[in-house]
Design a protein that fits this description.
Number of helices: 23
Strand order of the largest sheet: 11-18-17-16-15-12-14-13
Strand content: 5-15%
Helix content: 25-40%
Distance between the termini: 70 Å
Largest sheet: 8 strands, mixed
């Protein structure tokens, strides 16, 4: 490794290495960390986080002879609290150093961070920090193109870790190690040997005297998923079987394993020597306890229930967060996804034993072919942004296959979601100049009515011609307007040899009504956490299904499911671009979406979209006469709104607010805070229009609920006009006042020791209490509390 790394010279960025490798063996992480330091490279630790428990292995922060530690940690936390779920959703863990000596790495990391803060009254609280590096702000310059973290799964894992505490985690890790050692001692016999003299922790690799695949099949028939064949991972032609032992197995499981080996191999003599078990070096063990506190199950249930009561959700009422499609998630979806046969299915289990899971994937493929009108589907991408990346990489592969690698221009409207720009940059379309000509991302201008400026678009298609890779268009667009020239643009792009990517973030407006193949779409992602009712989860996990045209179906990533002679089988596309996930994507979310689709049926999908648009137009018709609307030209042109719309204040109303001392740029965000006092989540503020409130009501709410929400929006406008000073202190009824996020960013606190469960500030007036009050009474309470 040293020789190879040195040969790279200044091109070497990092050394990435596992603590336990793919054969189950412990690597010399101290030496590898020191080598990275010697070469001036970053040390990236690939780890199993549960093994850092008390009594487990040394954590990456302490690796190296000097204890300098690794620079970056990546790992999988799914098994800390979540079933295998046929491969997903999992819980990726990513960590960097953040201390007085290393301050800036955190600014180049993906995902989101929560920091300690104080509200205006000095209460301790938390706030999202470092968001200026994210895609919705930085677009193609973003260092993070992850719209969300796996917040829901992280919540589950956090609760599980606190219930186990130090002692519970130590017991789990110790049991896995002891079972591995005990099993190896019982399994070693003629024909079965440890493959390596290097130490293992809980995943021994055995060398067998016979082919592994037939043995695995016989084990399957005996009711055992025995292990994983790893013969091809190293040269030498040996028959290698890797086993894994954890606290999840029972003594009966181990006895069954031994009995199977007794039947397959010569029985181990009663007086046989125990065999050599390599010792783990003393320096590889963790020194000292983790210090994680323990809380009872009842304590944690009560605590998390209190936390949940601090939030508003689509379960409680209209959740108008524009561009996010915050619809109600039917509980039947979670019932289906939590059926034991799905939860406990391992993604590497034989196809014969996972036909139910494969059938779900097959059926949801067929549903989305029908919904989109497109030729083929991949279920592997884990979120909308990753779906975009899959689409763009397929487009690039298509052009390469045609000998047109020089197509290096991607057209994107200025008003597009930030992920479009960030994904394009990640795919290689970084905005730049080549030979004096623009390359990479080229922006499309908007017409006064908010849609793509057709003349500008056609001119750029003609200009870039043979260099045009394609176009990315959201339809309906981010202003809630349908791009009626989409087919014409698609035809022009295709005539030039380019391809068409449609961002499906707003499918809730058109699902079941529009044939995307007829519109000229070549690739499109569907956000399952938006249109198809999987939970947003406070920020993930999301999910995406990508559908493609005939042009791209041979390049699909991952595996597609086909039905052959009554059985479901996984197949790979002829020119597949590879994989975006280790297995089948977020399978449990496919179950949730499939349950929703079965409940709706084909006509129900059409009704869903129709009611979403109807609800939006109903509210727009009621609110827009009092508020202004954006884009301003859309109203003048009579452009119909689809599933969402943007309101704004009149110049006179802006002037009323700014006279109170609130800066013009802060007016719309302050109005958003006031929505919280009426029991609603805020609309999307200041995007895509800087002075706009974007409202998306979805199809989930009754007319009475929409009317109450409309009443509240009009009452807020009345306060703006009659008592604008109330905006200075809003919100008033939430657990904390407005948060001082400037101070939180100035003195970042991203972690602290956990000694007990943090204090919870209760709602001063709960959302449920607000929901029972007349809207006018809430406004009166706001005025009284504000002292206005």
């Amino acid at each position: 490794m040293r020789a190879r790394a040195r040969a790279l010279g200044p091109r070497l960025a990092a050394l990435a290495f596992p603590q336990i490798n793919s054969l189950g063996l412990l690597e010399d992480v101290d030496a590898l960390t020191d080598l990275a330091g010697e070469l001036g490279a970053r040390a990236i630790a690939v780890v199993d986080p549960i093994l850092f428990a008390t009594g487990g292995l040394k954590p990456p922060a302490q690796w190296g002879a000097s204890g300098r530690g690794a620079d970056i940690l990546v790992g999988e936390g799914q098994h800390l609290a979540i079933g295998p779920n046929f491969g997903g959703p999992g819980l990726g863990v990513f960590a960097v150093r953040f201390n007085p000596n290393v301050k800036n790495d955190v600014r180049a990391t993906p995902g989101r961070f929560v920091g300690k803060a104080h509200d205006l009254a000095g209460r301790d609280c938390c706030v999202m920090v470092l968001s200026t590096r994210e895609q919705h702000i930085r677009k193609d310059k973003a260092t993070s193109n992850i719209c969300s973290n796996q917040a829901f799964l992280a919540t589950l894992v956090g609760a599980a870790l606190l219930e186990r505490g130090d002692a519970g985690l130590a017991a789990a890790v110790g049991l896995g190690r002891r079972r591995a050692v005990a099993a190896v001692r019982k399994l070693l016999r003629p024909g079965v040997a440890l493959a390596y003299a290097a130490p293992f922790f809980n995943e021994p690799t055995l060398a067998l005297d016979r082919p592994v695949a037939p043995l695995l099949e016989r084990a399957r028939r005996a009711g055992l998923h025995l292990g994983v064949e790893v013969s091809a991972r190293v040269p030498g032609g040996r028959n290698l079987l890797k086993l894994s032992f954890t606290d999840a197995q029972s003594e009966e499981d181990l006895a069954k394993l031994e009995k199977f080996f007794d039947g397959e191999f010569t029985a181990r003599p009663m007086q046989a020597a125990t065999g050599y078990i390599p010792e783990i070096p003393a320096g590889a063990w963790r020194a000292g306890p983790v210090g994680l506190p323990h809380f009872s199950h009842d304590e944690l249930v009560a605590y998390y229930q209190k936390l949940g009561e601090l939030n508003v959700s689509p379960d409680d009422g209209c959740y108008p967060l524009g561009s996010c499609t915050m619809k109600y998630n039917p509980h039947v979806n979670d019932w289906a996804a939590n059926l034991p046969g799905f939860v406990n299915a391992h993604p590497q289990a034989p196809a014969e034993d996972t036909q139910g899971c494969l059938e779900v994937l097959f059926e949801i493929q067929e549903w989305f072919k029908g919904i989109t009108g497109l030729a083929a589907v991949t279920t592997q991408p884990l979120a909308g942004a990753q779906g975009e990346l899959a689409g763009l990489k397929m487009m690039q592969a298509y052009h390469r296959a045609r000998g047109e690698s020089g197509r290096n221009v991607l057209l994107i409207p200025k008003s597009a979601h930030g992920t479009n720009f960030a994904t394009a940059a990640m795919a290689g379309f970084v905005a730049r100049e080549e030979n004096g000509e623009p390359a990479g991302i080229v922006l499309l201008e908007a017409a006064p009515d908010g849609r793509i400026d057709l003349a500008d678009c056609e001119a750029k298609i003609a200009r870039f011609g043979s260099r045009l890779a394609g176009v990315m268009i959201t339809n309906p667009n981010t202003c809630g307007l349908f791009e009626t020239d989409f087919k014409r643009i698609a035809d022009d792009v295709h005539a030039s040899g380019g391809l068409v990517y449609m961002d499906g973030a707003n499918m809730n407006a058109i699902a079941g009504w529009v044939n995307l193949a007829a519109m000229g779409v070549d690739a499109l992602h569907n956000n399952l956490h938006k249109t198809w009712t999987i939970p947003h989860g406070g920020g993930g996990p999301g999910d995406a299904i990508v559908a493609v045209s005939e042009r791209l179906k041979d390049f699909l990533p991952g595996m597609q499911i086909e039905k052959r002679a009554g059985k479901f089988a996984a197949v790979k596309a002829a020119r597949s671009i590879g994989s975006f996930h280790r297995h089948w994507g977020n399978f449990a979310h496919k179950v949730r979406a499939y349950a929703y689709l079965l409940r709706l049926g084909g006509e129900g999908v059409r009704r869903m979209s129709a009611v979403a648009v109807l609800a939006s137009r109903y509210l727009y018709a009621r609110l827009s006469p009092q508020y202004g609307s954006l884009p301003a030209g859309a109203g003048a042109a009579g452009q119909p709104r689809m599933h969402e719309f943007i309101l704004t204040l009149s110049p006179e109303d802006f002037a009323r607010v700014t006279k109170t001392g609130i800066a013009p740029a802060a007016v719309i965000p302050r109005i958003g805070k006031l929505f919280l006092d009426f029991g609603f989540h805020a609309p999307t503020v200041a995007w895509p229009e800087a002075f706009g409130l974007m409202i998306e009501p979805t199809e989930s709410y009754t007319k009475a609920e929409l009317d109450r929400f409309g009443d509240a929006v009009l009452e807020i406008l009345k306060l703006v006009r009659e008592r604008p000073e109330v905006l200075k202190g809003a919100p008033y009824f939430t657990p904390v006042d407005r948060v001082d996020d400037v101070a939180a960013h100035r003195a970042l606190v991203l972690s602290e020791p956990l000694r007990g469960l943090p204090e919870i500030h209760a709602n001063r007036v709960s959302p449920r209490e607000l929901a029972a009050l007349p809207v006018a009474e809430i406004a009166a309470r706001v005025v009284k509390t504000a002292g206005a």
